Amino acid sequence: MSDDRRNVRPETLVRRMPLAEGVSRPVVTPIQPSVVYASPSIDTLHAQYEGRETGYTYAREGHPNATVLARKIDAMEGAEGGLVTGSGMAAVTAALMGIMGAGDHVIGGNQLYGRSLRLMHQDLARFGIATSVADPTDAEAVRAAIRPETRMILLEVVSNPTLRVADMEGIAAVAREAGVLLAVDNTFTTPRAWRPFEHGADIVIHSVTKLLAGHSDVTLGYVVAKDAGLQRAIYDFAVTTGLTPSPYECWLAERGLYTFPLRYDRAEANAAALADVLAGHPKVKRVLYPGRDDHPDRARAKALLGARTGNMVSFEIDGNEAAANRMVAAAPQLPFAPTLGDVGTTLSHPASSSHRALTPDARADLGHESTGSFRVSVGIEEIDLLISDFEQGLAAV
Ligand SMILES: *Cc1c(COP(=O)(O)O)cnc(C)c1O
Question: Nearest 5°: CA angle at 304, between 299 and 309?
Fold first, then answer.
């Protein structure tokens, strides 16, 4: 060994040094990637586990960036003690599996997010939890699906891709009467449009990946129960099964939230304008937007959401899949990508993506039988630019 190498004492390299501090402080939330947290003594660690002292112990159980993000979403939802998870599906899983057990029954909306339905039908079934689906625009259909062993109803307020609006007030009353928990996946609506806890929900779920984070660069979820005991059960399940989010992703999502209201309002205004332009276009057969008078649930949308009719628009071109394919190819500026809530507009074709597993009959039952149907997640672009992009695509139909 050379003298130089002998002079480097390894212990000085591995020993962590405290960050230099001064009288000033950072303006931006620091990212804290530490997996473990050192406690000053065994007594203190006992006190932490017993809740007499606060402090993190191990990142799977919680870390500062997740806490900051959770408290911000709590504030938006009017909730307390929510949990951030590693994805929206992790949040759905924690809500369902943290609370229910063998012998229980859950009712899902018939247009729930595809993976939520799959979790219920395929995975919960293996653990002895039965699932029924019901049409959430019809509170009586939901009531009819209730059994003595029904524990929970899981719904989305605005469905994908037909943007039907659930009868939330009616179903909340049904759930209350039956003593069944009402869980709402509020991803599409967001607390800017509707806050489930103010309308009888017991559990709120988000795919933070979508509008809340808003930049298609993080995968995260959020779940909160009104009841502290239920929240504890959800938390324990999530920590045991490792549904933990990464500090860096929490930090990115927190950054996204600062502009969420601005992004939401702009995207919604764009969606309303685009829906009207599409409805008047000769190559478009039908437009579905809850803010338009020709939407099947217009009255309910008005009562439930007021002017907050969201950034999602669905439309059907006058043509089949081949024509839809030409439209996608003719407008490469509009990413053909099966997600939603990005700052930029994205286009999806449910028949070939989110709903490809369904038969044409099953799609017809849900009201979107055409292979010429698109779903648009409208972004925050200049509206003139957006309209000209769609006109360019539609010219190829
Ligand atoms: C995307 C989505 C999910 C799943 O969220 P991930 O973050 O992709 O796991 C759940 N529900 C709805 C309504 C969604 O749009």
Answer: 80
What is the pLDDT at residue 1?
A: 47
| Residue 182 CA neighbour count, 13 Å, CB half | 27
For residue 150, what are its two tokens?
A: 């029904």
Could you give the CA distance from residue 183 to residue 116 in angstroms, rounded to a whole number?
12
Q: At what angle do helices 228-240 and 88-99 cross, to 10 degrees?
A: 120
pLDDT at 14: 82
Residue 18, pLDDT score:
81
Q: Which whole-number Å values give the CA distances from 186 to 92, 107, 209, 218, in the listed order?
A: 11, 17, 12, 18
- Residue 130 sits in a domain whose CATH number is 3.40.640.10
- Look at residue 19 in the predicted model and tell me its pLDDT: 82
Cα–Cα distance, 44 to 172 (Å, whole number): 45
Structural domain for 316, as ranges: 260-395
- Name residues contacting ligand 1 (CB within 6 A): 87-89, 92, 113, 116, 156, 185, 187-188, 207, 209-210, 219, 221
Q: Is residue 43 part of a domain?
A: no
Could you count the other beta carbons within 10 Å of the beta carbon of residue 256?
Answer: 22
Query: What pLDDT is stored for residue 3 in this prediction?
Result: 54
**Do residues 201 and 166 share a domain?**
yes
Q: Show which of 223, 257, 291 is a domain's final residue.
A: 257
321 and 264, same structural domain? yes
Question: Distance between CA atoms of 190 and 206, rounded to whole angstroms?
Answer: 8
Please check whether residues 172 and 70 belong to one and the same domain: yes
pLDDT beneath 70: ranges in the chain: 1-11, 368-369
Determine, yes or no, domain membership for 16. Answer: no
- Tell which atom from ligand 1 comes closest to the C-alpha of 92: 10
Which pLDDT belongs to residue 372?
92
Q: Which of 164, 187, 188, 218 should be mutated for ligand 1, with most atoms under 8 A from CB? A: 187
